[in-house]
Amino acid sequence: MAPIRVLQVFTIMNRGGAESMIMNYYRNIDRDQVQFDFLVHRKEKAAFDEEIERLGGKIYKLDPINPVSPGKYYEALRIFFKEHSDYAIVHSHLNTFSNFPLKIAKEFNIPCRIAHAHIAISEINLSSIRKEGLKETAKKWIKFRLRQKVKDNTTHLFSCGEKAGKWLFGKESSFQLMNNAIDSKKFAYNEDVARTYMNTLNIKEDTLVLGHVGRYASQKNHAFLIDIFAATLKKNQNCVLISVGDGPLRAGIEQKAKALGIEDKILFLGVREDIPALFQVFDIFVFPSFYEGLPVTLIEAQAAGVKVVASDTITSEVHVTDEIAFLSLQKEADVWAKTILKTDTSKKGQNTDKIIDANYDIVSNTLAMEKFYLEQSAI
């Protein structure tokens, strides 16, 4: 018997948080029973494309959605569903844009239409406008308007956490939590891996290693990350920053580091496939995002026993071990630097059991997801 096929809807399958999360599920699900296909909205090749095809998935590529004038997109999607009429489950991860594909999925009477919340966007105010700029504020304003329609064409509401779900669907809405689960054993601290990677990256053993993993987009607040690192260096020259990821703002951030004269202390590693191993090197994971949903990288950091200093805009749901502390973005970079330098990094915790107990391990979560899909396909 052929497996049921679930259409997962994304912008592009690069190494973002939601994309990495669904790939964790995809690798672990029983693909003899459930297969994933992907509808994306960028034509270029993405980081996960080859792995998806290797696992048996199909990738369909449409043009980007124009939220102001979606007519051409609707037309293209109608053609798609006419040609692929066998999908009974459409699972959209586009946050406020989920209304667009699910509207047409409803038109074609697809019985299971899931909107999945991955982010809780911070409110718009004078402070956010100053920090994020008018362009990003305009994008946020459109998303605030669009979220009012997300539930109109859904049959099920999913969220990575309480905060993200309440933001997208409304405080009184009922939604199902689907945890940003990880393979916790893969991230468990391994001293041999840490030593090997320290040598490979040419980092001396007594160096304090700060780390960050995230796409270079305004949400992640890389500019402030650089300010924090510069302030830390003023107090302790024996430290480095490892920045993993890529994105439209990377060149500007690298230029800022150069202007501050600290570029030789930062390793800009770009997109990497060896994230679990890199976490073995980090002493402190610094994460000053303006807003998030429930960032899987913070679960990964804690699984690796890495200390975390994160912005208090992030949901406390990520607080699953004693390795994490929260700071206000209203605090100056110097305050963040002092917190970083007083953090005890002498010992890394073995947190696999804590991650499992908090229900962020991939095995049990995948079984629950698989059961849901199979039940929906049988209706």
UniProtKB/TrEMBL annotation:
What positions does the domain Glycosyl transferase family occupy? Answer: 197-342
Q: Which sequence ranges are marked TM in the entry? A: none
Q: Which CDD domains match?
A: GT4_CapH-like
What InterPro entries has UniProt attached to this entry? Glyco_trans_1, Glycosyltransferase_grp1
Please give the superkingdom of this protein's source. Answer: Bacteria
What molecular function terms (GO) are annotated for this protein?
A: glycosyltransferase activity
Q: Which SUPFAM superfamilies does the UniProt entry name for this protein? A: UDP-Glycosyltransferase/glycogen phosphorylase
Q: Which UniProt keywords apply?
A: Transferase
Which Pfam families does its entry note? Glycos_transf_1 (PF00534)
Its name, as the record gives it, is Glycosyltransferase involved in cell wall bisynthesis
